[in-house]
Amino acid sequence: MTTDGWPLWEVFVRSRRGLSHTHAGSLHAPDAEMALRNARDLYTRRMEGVSIWVVPSTAITASSPDEKDPFFEPSADKPYRHPTFYEIPDGVKHL
Amino acid sequence: MTARTTTGDAGATTVPAATLALGDDALVLAQRLGEWAGGAPVLEEEVALANIALDLLGQARVLLSLVGDEDELAYLREERAFRNCQLVEQPNGDFAHTIARQLYFSTYQHLLYRRLAAGDSPLAGLAAKAVKEVAYHQDHAEHWTLRLGDGTEESHRRMQAACDALWRYTGELFQPLDGLDLDTEAMERAWLDSVTAVLGRATLTVPPGPRTGAWSAGAGRQGLHTESFGRMLAEMQHLHRSHPGASW
Lengths: 95, 248
What we know:
The structure holds two protein chains of two kinds. By secondary structure, chain A is an alpha+beta fold. Chain A has a domain at 8-65: Roll (Ubiquitin-like (UB roll)). Chain A is 18% helix and 21% strand. In chain A, strands 2-1-3 form a three-stranded antiparallel beta sheet, with helices on one face. Helices cover 65% and strands 0% of the residues of chain B. Chain B contains ten helices and no strands. By secondary structure, chain B is mainly alpha-helical. Chain B has one domain (6-242): Up-down Bundle (Ferritin).
């Protein structure tokens, strides 16, 4: 038996309340419920998470490496878009 | 854990037989599940089985430490001194056998630990922690039972064969445990209801054979074990017996 016939799933884990789900990795599973359980075993066994999402890898549309320049380069020379001119008050985390 | 507290020591003196039996259950099933390492059907499932094995090993360490030295108990006892039920020592077989064994045992262990956690026995503390682990083991086994039973023709056939083959080891689970005040008859009814419901949803048939007759001469709880148990023990114990006290 192999996982050849099993679809690939992307796993997103929320490590703490207040934080966003972050991509943790991928795994094979026959369906969403098993993917969730496999994700629990593979990615949260050392208390890394409070919530898990699994998404079929095929449902993700990714930007193409070939289009990297038109996609991202125009933003490189526009420093006024970066909110770096503010003082961040003490005690504000995750900004 | 609070194994060394006064309560824990009292546990060792008031319910040693039951503590040993439950500790051996966890130890032996952990060893069996560990045998899948490197050979499970898929990588994801190998990690899942290893997680369950490690949960059980953790329970075994606490329980055996209440009785005596955990290493001596695990590695230096002869076969007849083990008090685990015969169900947990059954060989892994194919994946369906491993899942059937886990379904039967985790359903029992969940019922048992829920009751122990709610009671005031010296094992209540351990049970309260372990009951969450065991709930996941049961959930894992149920989901696989549903998929294999209601899967392909071959998976259905194998899952039914596994459920049938292990059925006769399930009666022993409900022998009273010395020193623990448990309504084992109520537990057995709840176990049957739960397993029957899962098998039904999985389009499997509840095995028709007896659950009790096979162990009428005594069984694992009395130190009588099945053929494959000796080989499993030899593998588990040989390193410690060859190199006493070795560590790394």
